[in-house]
Specification:
417 residues; alpha/beta; FAD/NAD(P)-binding domain; D-Amino Acid Oxidase, Chain A, domain 2; 8-stranded mixed beta sheet; 18 strands; 30% helix; binds flavin-adenine dinucleotide
Length: 417
């Protein structure tokens, strides 16, 4: 890697006043032809391009991004990473992603700041606790780490949480995935972009795909704001805009695009060193390395592409967090933002071929796709390279909406994360 980052390169560049660093990725003009075009320069699209080049030797690849790299949901999410899903298919897919996270900084030679501080899902009712036990047992059977905790064990780990029975929804226990955690979202996009560019992938920003060129049931290329670009294989990884792209091919995806918001507080001293989530009061919180509380909840119920949300959702979410952490009522909030998430009927992704030969979709990750970024790119690259799904994403094809083999992860997806 020409641009390899190390202590040695830091010292060397430091001696030159840091004026000789190479750009992390190249920004070439688009060529007329590629073997594969990836539409969408978020984490999933960039990871797909990286693994196409690295694992399948397909390097004549372009990633077309209408804005700036990682400016979609990749930049807007709250970065929770875990693999404790209920059903075998989902648990295996997300666990594949988690295993890749565990070696990602080394693989990319880029610090994605993956921090395995654990993810806790608290339960407030007897039914919550039954669901927690069931999911933890299913996780253990699938080789996914899971622990069930008592209220006192929760309090020992998170001293600020209120486990008294004075609250409206007292905390009765929790599941905990020790290998879960958080990562730095921008670094994931930049790391994959740098790795893919190094392997020969063209990363083209400010290039919106405005149409798909299809002849005789085969994809031939794309119309873009920078002219037509041809390729026999096109992978669409456009999150909230997936239905818009599908429509260009005359396809209708079973997706709804909803706003999803998050907000952060002022910076504080370390006060919570894990991720706490509650489906029942409907909120979750972690603390960033800068000291901000990172807080999120559920989608706004209306459909839209506005990348902003409604104030009442913020109010509801703040109330949920204060219910669990009364002392946070005195913390001032700093920033709020929204992304557009592509929600599927079974809260599981679509990683699939389509009836148009050479046209593939990777979407439907809804509120929880960040955690899957490396795994999603890895199996999607396989699907495109072989024109056949990877064993881990075979169950996530579009056919499931016709056959009825849905993988209902509403319980494990629950509060949006
Ligand atoms: C507020 C919020 C909190 C979240 N929290 C979590 C969490 O804690 N954990 C978790 O696992 N997930 C979370 N998610 C979900 C997660 O962010 C997404 O599932 C994931 O980032 C999707 O990645 P992506 O690369 O597919 O999409 P994106 O990053 O959105 O990338 C898609 C890209 O496609 C581009 N694009 C769209 N149309 C076109 C076009 N016509 N031509 C060219 N480019 C196009 C867009 O500009 C965009 O950059 C959250 C999402 C939000 C909004």
């Amino acid at each position: 890697m020409a641009n390899r980052y190390s202590l040695w390169s830091l010292i060397k560049n430091g001696l030159k006043h840091h004026e000789s660093w190479q750009p992390a990725w190249k920004s070439p003009q688009p060529k007329k032809n590629y073997d594969v075009i990836i539409v969408g320069g978020g984490g999933h699209g960039l990871a797909t391009a990286y693994y196409l080049a690295k694992e399948h030797g397909i390097k004549n690849v372009a990633v077309l991004e209408k804005g700036y790299l990682g400016g979609g949901n990749t930049a807007r999410n709250t970065t929770i990473i875990r693999s404790n899903y209920l059903w075998d298919e989902a648990a295996h897919l997300y666990e594949h992603g988690l295993k890749l996270w565990e070696g990602l900084s080394q693989d990319l030679n880029f610090n994605v700041m993956f921090s395995q501080r654990g993810v806790m899902n608290v339960g407030h009712t007897l039914q919550d606790m039954r669901d927690i036990e069931r999911r933890a047992n299913a996780n253990l059977l699938n080789g996914v780490d899971a622990v069930v905790m008592t209220p006192q064990e929760i309090k020992d780990m998170v001293p600020l949480i209120d486990i008294s029975n004075r609250t409206r929804y007292p905390i009765m226990g929790a599941s905990f995935q020790p290998r879960g955690g958080v990562a730095r979202h921008d670094a994931v996009a930049w790391g994959f972009a740098r790795g893919a560019s190094e392997l020969g992938v063209d990363i083209i920003e400010q290039c919106e795909v405005t149409g798909l060129i299809i002849e005789g049931g085969r994809i031939k290329g794309v119309n873009t704001s920078r002219g037509d670009i041809m390729a026999d294989r096109v992978g669409c990884v456009a999150a909230g805009n997936s239905s818009v792209l599908a429509k260009m091919a005359g396809l209708r995806l079973p997706l709804e695009s909803h706003p999803l918001q998050a907000f952060v507080s002022e910076s504080m001293k370390p006060c919570i060193d894990t991720v706490v989530m509650s489906n029942a009061v409907h909120g979750y919180v972690s603390q960033s390395d800068k000291g901000e509380l990172v807080i999120g909840a559920g989608i706004d119920s209306y459909l839209g592409y506005g990348q902003r949300g409604s104030p009442h959702v913020i109010e509801h979410t703040a109330a949920a967090i204060i219910e669990m952490f009364p002392s946070f009522s005195r913390v001032r909030m700093n920033r709020q933002w929204g992304g557009i998430v592509d929600v599927s009927p079974d809260a599981c992704p679509i990683i699939s071929k389509t009836r148009i030969k050479g046209l593939y979709f990777n979407c439907g990750w809804g509120t929880g796709g960040f955690k899957a970024t490396p795994g999603s790119g890895n199996v999607f690259a396989h699907t495109i390279a072989h024109d056949d799904p990877h064993p881990l994403n075979r169950a996530f094809s579009l056919d499931r909406f016709a056959t009825g083999h849905l993988i209902d992860e509403h319980g494990a997806a629950a509060v949006a994360h």
